[in-house]
Inverse folding.
């Protein structure tokens, strides 16, 4: 099985009995071991996965198919609770946590027949954008192993880009599905807030956390999304949609190669029949402080006891953010929740005249491990969050998909965002763009 | 910053403490605008709270 296989392609091959689930899982475990240096996994589950694959093959032989993921190996970010399997949340704090139940999002995939082959690395407690993890090591970018995979769902994106696992579940509080997808050249969907259950997923910030699918192609993400939510994947061509271009903020100070690739992608979308509409949402300027105030306060509320009792068990960057959150007064937190309302209202108003918003997913491609700034000179953390986080503040759905490469071969991500619960059309548009290009078919040399 | 938090910060290494306070104060710069935007609004914790 080559790295270029997709979830949909292996599903079809399994259906045609061209390979067994056991063969597929064994090949994937071998491949996971070969990419060990990427540090994409915190826990690999070879015996459990092979046993599950054997059961899948026996069931298939009896004509008993569980669902559309029958016998297909997948991964989940290691903050998604998995019954009987350690779930560290990338931390020392939860290093020994062995949940008694699967999170409902994981249960949905398992009920559809998926085989869990491993738990992926993440930024400590999902609280960061690099996935340089002080306890489990940095999840490295398969396109250039001296560079970050992005975070916080970096292990999921890195393993997918390296051809390991045919889908994954990530979480996104300020961009943690879309940022690593952008930096690793994979596809990640942050659905509308609340669409996928957060139960059994270690929280970072309850009112900003989103759970969503990650994979190598839009069709694969759509299939996972269908399993997670029941919204049927569509292969329809998108109608002529009005695409919003928000020059200010979303196109400010981009790395030149990112800007060039995204503008070329926009031209391609126009060629596909989409109409471009300029939009401007003045309230966008407020959203960074709004999101940060909420995220810092909620994260520190969740971790308060441990921050005070076990500060030495946190990494330095996480501890500093958690201490910062403890300093925020309740009145500021409530001001942020109140300011959130006009921000959402302004986005809703903008989406009355557009169907989708098109932006870069990140302002620059992957930085080197240890870098403090990005290619465009922007501070790393705030720079990587800038374009993704508005859709956490608002809860609107957004997807990142590849739209090019830098001269030195690093992936560049395009972000498409929609109004709440418009994921079907969002994925149709993403699919149409993807199929007009070959970006998603490229794979890093491992 | 509340007195309680100041007391908790007393235990920190002086360098860490200064860095944290500087970061907090820089962060606070944007809060005044938030407060202006909050006037007349009720809290919105998530899309699920919208009418």
């Amino acid at each position: 099985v080559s790295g270029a296989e997709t979830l949909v392609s292996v599903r079809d091959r399994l259906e045609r009995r061209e390979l067994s689930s056991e063969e597929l899982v064994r090949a994937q475990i071998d491949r996971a071991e070969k990419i060990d240096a990427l540090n994409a996994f915190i826990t690999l589950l070879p015996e459990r996965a092979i046993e599950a694959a054997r059961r899948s093959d026996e069931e298939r032989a009896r004509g008993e198919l569980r669902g559309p993921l029958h016998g297909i190996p997948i991964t989940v970010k290691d903050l998604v609770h998995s019954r009987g399997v350690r779930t560290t949340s990338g931390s020392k704090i939860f290093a020994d946590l062995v949940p008694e139940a699967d999170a409902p999002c994981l249960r949905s995939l398992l009920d559809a027949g998926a085989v869990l082959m491993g738990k992926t690395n993440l930024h400590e407690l999902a609280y960061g954008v690099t996935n340089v993890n002080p306890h489990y090591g940095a999840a490295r970018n398969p396109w250039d192993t001296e560079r970050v995979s992005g975070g916080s769902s970096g292990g999921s994106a890195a393993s997918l880009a390296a051809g390991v696992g045919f889908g994954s579940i990530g979480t996104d509080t300020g961009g943690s599905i879309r940022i690593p997808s952008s930096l690793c050249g994979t596809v990640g969907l942050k659905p509308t807030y609340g669409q996928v259950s957060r139960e059994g997923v270690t929280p970072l910030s309850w009112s900003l956390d989103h759970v969503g699918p990650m994979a190598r192609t839009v069709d694969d993400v759509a299939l996972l999304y269908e399993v997670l939510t029941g919204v049927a994947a569509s292969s329809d061509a998108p109608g002529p949609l009005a695409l919003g271009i928000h020059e200010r903020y979303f196109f400010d100070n981009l790395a030149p190669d990112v800007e060039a690739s995204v503008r070329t992608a926009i031209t391609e979308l126009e060629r596909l029949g989409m109409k471009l509409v300029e939009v401007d949402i003045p309230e966008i300027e407020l959203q960074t402080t709004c999101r940060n105030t909420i995220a810092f306060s909620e994260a520190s509320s969740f971790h308060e006891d441990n921050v005070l009792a076990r500060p030495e068990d946190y990494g330095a960057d996480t501890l500093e953010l958690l201490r910062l959150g403890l300093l925020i007064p309740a009145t500021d937190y409530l001001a942020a929740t109140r300011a959130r309302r006009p921000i959402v209202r302004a986005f809703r108003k903008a989406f009355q005249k557009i169907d989708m918003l098109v932006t870069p997913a990140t302002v620059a491609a992957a930085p080197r491990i240890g870098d403090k700034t990005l290619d465009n000179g922007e501070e790393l953390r705030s720079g990587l969050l800038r374009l993704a986080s508005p859709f956490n503040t608002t809860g609107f759905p957004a997807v990142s998909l590849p739209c090019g490469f830098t001269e030195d071969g690093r992936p560049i991500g395009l972000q498409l965002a929609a109004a709440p619960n418009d994921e079907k059309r969002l994925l149709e548009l993403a699919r149409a763009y993807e199929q007009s290009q070959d970006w998603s078919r490229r794979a890093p040399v491992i | 910053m509340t007195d309680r938090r100041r007391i908790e910060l007393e235990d920190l290494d002086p360098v860490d403490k200064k860095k944290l306070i500087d970061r907090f104060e820089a962060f606070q710069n944007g809060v005044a605008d938030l407060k202006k935007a909050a006037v007349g609004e009720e809290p919105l914790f998530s899309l699920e709270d919208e009418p």
The CA atoms of residues 17 and 23 of chain B lie 10 Å apart. Chain B touches chain A through 29 residues (CB under 8 Å). The mean pLDDT of chain B is 81.
